[in-house]
Amino acid sequence: MSAMHAELATGPTIKLPPPRSTGGLPLMEAFGQRKSSRKFSTRSLELQDLADIFWAGFGLSRPHLGTGINSPGSHTAPTAHNWQEIDIFAAMAGGLYLYDPADNELRGLLQEGIRRFPGNPMQPFVLDAPVILIYVADLERMDDAGDWDKSVFPWADTAVIAENVYLACASLGLATVVRALFDRPALSMAMQLRDTQLVTFSQPLGYPG
Ligand SMILES: Cc1cc2nc3c(=O)[nH]c(=O)nc-3n(C[C@H](O)[C@H](O)[C@H](O)COP(=O)(O)O)c2cc1C
User: Fold this and answer.
1) Cα–ligand 1 centroid distance for 77 (angstroms)
2) Alpha-carbon dihedral 117, 92, 176, 59, rounded to 10 degrees
3) CATH number of residue 83's parent domain
4) Whose CA is closest to 206, among 23, 87, 50?
5) Quick check: CB of 39 below 6 Å from ligand 1?
6) What is the Cα–Cα distance from 142 to 162, expressed in whole angstroms?
7) pTM of the model as a whole
8) Model pLDDT for residues 130-139, shown as the tens digit of each residue
9) Which residue, 188, 181, 190, is CA-closest to 126?
10) Burial of 126 (0-12, 13-18, 19+ CB in 10 A)
11) Pick from 14, 148, 165, 186: most CB atoms within 10 A?
12) How far, in Å, CA of 79 to CA of 86, rounded?
């Protein structure tokens, strides 16, 4: 667990099993199956499916030798300048969790219900999903970034992660949709984020309803 988030931890940690490296759909079939779905079963996700999704999104696929343009990348998704500024949070029945790729675990942060905040009255299906991913950029990690970099790259870096999650969902037979339509200030406040943390997109997922 990075020291940056350790002080926030208040809930229990969920240890994830290693991601499966075999099985699933062939990649070209997964592209063919990728789609946005807005009907979710409320059934909890199997831990193995959860582990595979997080790893596909932004897991470690190579040794982690640091961040920044002078270090080689280490994750399943690229980031501009190798800033690795995107954190994946998950709002689940047990509260809010933060994915830690290095320790392959979900660190419990807040136990109050924040699931309604990444939702939207016009899109009530979000609340059916057992897992609501929330992508947050930590702008402090973007060393030497100018204002333009900070306004553009968090969104781009989230988008590539979200597509990985889409493809993993297609392969595992899960429903998902990336979402931009929610009240960011309210969600940021509920998550107790710092001013330098930017919520980009959200992505509910679960078994198809
Ligand atoms: C940046 C972005 C934001 C989106 N925001 C929403 C959203 O707030 N709500 C929603 O239902 N779908 C949202 N979508 C999903 C699109 O509506 C969907 O991708 C599009 O209709 C094409 O369908 P497909 O993903 O099945 O190909 C978003 C997609 C992207 C890429």
Assistant:
1) 20
2) 110
3) 3.40.109.10
4) 50
5) no
6) 20
7) 0.95
8) 999 999 999 9
9) 181
10) buried
11) 165
12) 8
pLDDT, averaged per 10 consecutive residues of the chain (209 residues), comes to 50 94 95 98 98 98 94 97 98 95 95 87 95 98 96 98 98 98 96 97 98
Spatial contact of 129 and 204, defined as CB atoms under 8 Å apart: yes
Q: How many structural domains are present in the chain?
A: 1
Does the CB atom of residue 35 touch ligand 1 within 6 A? yes
pLDDT digits (tens, 9 = 90+) for 45-87: 999 999 999 999 999 999 999 999 999 999 999 999 999 999 9
**Residues with Cβ < 8 Å from 9, sequence gap 6 or more?**
1, 107, 108, 109
Cβ–Cβ < 8 Å for 26, 118: no
Q: Whose CA is nearest to atom 10 of ligand 1?
A: 179
**Backbone Cα Rg of the chain:** 16
Q: Answer whether 177 contacts ligand 1 (Cβ < 6 A).
A: yes
> Three-state DSSP class for 163?
helix
Q: Which two tokens stand for residue 15?
A: 């240890």
Q: Is 189 in the pocket of ligand 1 (CB under 6 A)?
A: no
